[in-house]
Amino acid sequence: LKATGENVREAWAALEPAPEFDDLDADALRVVTEDPADEVAFHAIRVLLHTRPVPFDEHDLQIPWDSPQAALHELLGRLLARHHQSRAALLQVLGNLTIDQQAVDAFWETLLQTSTDREVRGNATARYMEKAFNDLQAPGVTDTQREALRARALELARIIRRDYADVPIAPGAGLSLPDGRRSGQLPLLAVVEHHEHVLSYSVGAVLPDVDAPLLRGGADTLGAHRGEVVLIDFWFLACKPCRRGQPDLLRFKQEMAGRPFEIIGISIDADAAAVIDYIEKKQPMPWTHWLIGPASPLPREWSVAGYPTYILLDASGMVRARSHHFDEAMRDDIRRLLRAMK
């Protein structure tokens, strides 16, 4: 238009506006229903994932998995895995696919077994490697199960190094990286190296001693707590899941009164006064508190990739479990370690 001397702004304003995705919703449903394996159906699924997002409860920070949108996403996920598992564009779609953990596992297992696309298979392999690494750290897992999971994770890591090291990380694969990013221009080799680092701070490893500032002044060391079962809680004030779990921590600490058990709350907040005010006026937490601040390298060194992160140490300082949940399995592990000290 510029080359012919036309007024671009006026010419653009005269064009009919492009249809919004919402205008295509009904047609997309019809196309998927008629032939879910057709290439046009693949793009119709992309439209539906955009126009029918699964709601998110901002107050409880939870997804209502019983909602109609969640059921639709689960169906669309099955169709993608069954009929479109080898399309190169599949990995671009997954950022809008919202399905629960059981469906996620089934989805990636199908891709790993059936896809012929190298990038899809590489990301599926990395998903299963990460799952094995995460499962071996969970509370309530026996030593025999942990060794089997460790062997599986390391074997998958070897396969990625051999076959998929240069494959880019897919945005929708949900793979963890040291800085918490989920995607980018990094290759799958970065995921392998990250999890190999995690192993140094995972179950079976003894955490290195560190010095840290106490919330109310003074200093503490991890080594000062040798001889105690220790639950480390990485948290910060604005973290709703962190705050939601603190009453359970308090009840359990009271239940363990008189036993060699301590909680070390490690806050990454910058304002000590605000943390003290919260503990004194809103949520009592009668245990040791470190205030390391947002710039501390400690979370990255210890591979903390989400909050809260709980790390359970036995009396020798060895990691026995890591989790984002202070659940009954974690409490049982603590009780078991304390019984073994008698």
List the helices and strands and how they pair.
Elements lengths: L7 H7 L10 H10 L4 H13 L16 H16 L6 H4 L7 H14 L3 H20 L5 H22 L23 H12 L11 E3 L5 E3 L7 E7 L4 H16 L5 E7 L4 H10 L6 E4 L6 H4 L7 E5 L5 E5 L4 H13 L2
Parallel strand pairs: 3-4, 4-5
Antiparallel strand pairs: 1-2, 3-6, 6-7
Helix pairs in contact: 2-3, 4-6, 6-7, 7-8, 7-9
Model description:
The chain has 342 residues and is of the alpha/beta class. Helix content is 47%, strand content 10%. The chain is built from 13 helices and seven strands. The chain has helices spanning 8-14, 25-34, 39-51, 68-83, 90-93, 101-114, 118-137, 143-164, 188-199, 240-255, 272-281, 298-301, 328-340, and strands at 211-213, 219-221, 229-235, 261-267, 288-291, 309-313, 319-323. The protein has a five-stranded mixed sheet, covered by helices on one side. It has a two-stranded antiparallel ribbon with strand order 1-2. A hairpin with a 5-residue loop joins strand 6 and strand 7 (319-323). Helix 4 packs parallel to helix 6 (101-114).
The amount of helix comes to: 40-55%
The stretches of 5 or more residues where confidence is low (pLDDT under 50) are: none
Instruction: Please state the CA-atom Rg, rounded to the nearest Å.
Output: 24 Å
Secondary-structure element string:
HHHHHHHHHEEEHEHEHEEH
Report how far apart the termini are.
85 Å
Mean pLDDT: 88
Shape: globular
